[in-house]
Amino acid sequence: MTQPDLSCLVASMGKLRLKRTPAEEAEHRARKRRRKDLKKEDVDAEARFQESMSMAFEDDERVDSLESRFNGYHDPDIPTHWGDSSSRRRRHFEDPDDYLKQDPSTMDEEEYAEWIRFGMYRCVSKFPVCARFYSGTRRSHKDEYEEEKRQKAAEKSAKRREQAIKEAAKKQESERRKRRRERESRKQDSARDDYEARWKTILAATQLPDTQYRFEDIPWPIYHSSSRVITVDDLNSEAILTFLSLSKTVDTEEEKRVRKDKLRETYLRFHPDKFEGRLMNKVDDEYKDIVRLGVGQVVRILNDLMQK
């Protein structure tokens, strides 16, 4: 006895549907509601997106329309850097080179500023016009380095030359001062020698009856120019110390001794009693009073210096 074919039997029965429990049925309905709500939300979001895109396109069209109207308006009183300058240049100057080739002397302040601004922008942006303007001027890094080295070497050389010139000038000035001091020293030595010689001459001529001296003929212990007439005011302590080659202060005993001897020798020459007895009778009557005044002043100064 043959057995029945179970596969055919199962196929003929179809899909088995089991009955849901109340809880499963409630969960199934909830899932269906959620899917329906999500689908509705997707449709609403798409609609809102399409609406916002449409509004954005309308705004762009309105802005573009306003911009084109503004750019299309040309008023010479409006500064050129307001608005779309590139479109304005393209309208007035089809080739940017024509704009850059304008004569800046014919521009006002605003036009000149815009002209400079546009030229700088072209150069920074590496437009072809800049390549034409600056072609052949760009150098390699090595060339720039070599030129920098040459510049530094030239600066160092210039500094060395300047320093040498300063040192030479300083040396020349030092030599000039040295020669000046030597000339002054020789002049002072000559003046002191002349002072001593004049005293010897005056003392030797006291026996001559016709000799008459003026104030300036007296060998006063100061330096004075032959072109300038000496006065009593010239007889001061500083001038006398300078003439006698004495400093205002002394440090050693030897310096004190030399100072004292020179002051004493000069003091004895101008002592009022000796001067009156030896020379005053040879002084012209017109100059006797001023000579006495000068002698008294020299004696007072020498006396004060010897007391210090």
From TrEMBL:
Record's subcellular location: Nucleus
GO biological process, one term: negative regulation of canonical NF-kappaB signal transduction
Biased composition (Basic and acidic residues): 68-78, 92-101, 141-190
Region span, Disordered: 19-44, 68-105, 140-190
Key words, A-Z: ANK repeat, Nucleus, Phosphoprotein, Repeat
Keyword Repeat assigned: yes
Protein's UniProt keywords contain Transmembrane: no
One GO cellular component, as annotated: nucleus
Protein name: J domain-containing protein
Lineage: Eukaryota, Fungi, Dikarya, Basidiomycota, Agaricomycotina
